[in-house]
Design a protein that fits this description.
Number of helices: 9
Helix content: 10-25%
Distance between the termini: 26 Å
CATH topology: Metallo-beta-lactamase, Chain A
Shape: globular
CATH superfamily: Ribonuclease Z/Hydroxyacylglutathione hydrolase-like
Strand content: 15-25%
Strand order of the largest sheet: 3-9-8-7-6-5-4-16-15
Number of strands: 16
Structural class: alpha/beta
CATH architecture: 4-Layer Sandwich
Length: 313
């Protein structure tokens, strides 16, 4: 969620020491806006299939949204830049399940750590792994998690799916395991426990670094950058007939699309780029109706829904 709404609470120096110890030499912290450089794990290069062995075959994917919690009475102006200051909305806390070609893929992973319940008055919560089980999917069968960005409510559930390979933008990984924790860095909304788990998974060979924009990371699933909700957030296009774009927080609500207003961004200077990215999402999906925002409860009204699960395709 937006960086201006949250503050990380841990001691910066202690996190750096623990991250460096966990990475066992794999993560090298360097100064500069790009953050830490990593020498471990394969990456998927921009415009290429990469080390994951992406094939030309495109599975017929199903897409479902799972609502695992609610944040009540959240200020709309924190989601739609320039919205009325007194407007409130009940935020849907969501991740998405994509299945096909023998794979069960999560786009984002929710959260479960206690501090965020207090900070955001979370209601109607079901742990993400339990929510997946309720949808009829063994949580142990999740093969991949594509992380849109490193905020607590999107990367905070990766430890609940220990068999999954994590896909994250290379620059996002480098920044939030390194320079974000330096005096000039920004780590609002980033949970140190999530970062530590990400580093552990990298050491175990369960992280794939997506290197840039317009990258096919799995057959028929491409990652895109430029919206800059965080340092290097990404959104995805799921190919098929018809295609869909899953925006996550790069576009919070349908209102962002309709009003041509930015979501919260890493820096206010990124807002024009965020608006341009939203228009690109529409082009990639072929219709604004096939762009799925990150926190809009309306997706559970627009698509057939049973309980917490909306069937998008």
């Amino acid at each position: 969620m937006m960086k201006c709404a949250i503050r990380a609470t841990c001691a910066m120096a202690g996190v750096l020491i623990l991250l460096l110890a966990l990475s066992d030499g794999f993560v090298r912290n360097q100064a500069g806006a790009a953050g830490a450089r990593t020498t471990s794990g394969p990456s998927v290069a921009s415009g290429q299939a990469g080390a994951a062995g992406v094939s030309a075959a495109e599975p017929s994917y199903t897409i479902r949204a799972i609502r695992y919690a609610t944040v009540p009475k959240f200020p709309l102006a924190g989601l739609v830049m320039g919205a009325p200051k007194d407007a409130l909305i009940d935020i849907a806390m969501v991740f998405w399940v994509i299945q096909g070609g023998g794979q069960t893929i999560l786009f984002d992973s929710g959260f479960h750590r206690e501090k965020w319940f207090v900070d955001f008055h979370i209601t109607d919560f079901v742990a993400p792994n339990e929510a997946v089980e309720r949808a009829g999917i063994p949580s142990s069968s999740v093969t991949d998690i594509i992380v849109s960005h490193a905020h607590w409510d999107h990367m905070g559930g990766i430890d609940l799916f220990p068999n999954a390979t994590i896909w994250i933008q290379k620059q996002e990984f480098e920044y939030y395991t390194g320079a974000a924790w330096q005096p000039s860095g920004q780590h609002g909304g980033i949970d140190p426990d999530d970062v530590q788990e990400l580093v552990r998974r990298n050491v175990r060979g369960q992280v794939r670094l997506v290197n840039g924009d317009d990258v096919e990371i799995l057959p028929g699933i491409r990652a895109y950058t430029g919206a800059r909700h965080t340092f290097a957030s990404q959104y995805i296009r799921v190919g098929g007939d018809p295609p869909y774009v899953l925006a996550s927080d790069n576009c919070y609500l349908y209102e962002n699309l309709m009003s041509h207003r930015a979501s919260a961004t890493f820096d206010p200077a990124d807002e024009p780029g965020n608006i341009a990215a939203q228009q690109r999402m529409i082009s990639l999906a072929g219709s604004a109706d096939r762009v799925i925002p990150g926190h809009d409860p309306a997706q559970f009204e627009r698509f057939p829904t049973s309980g917490r699960v909306a069937r998008i395709r």
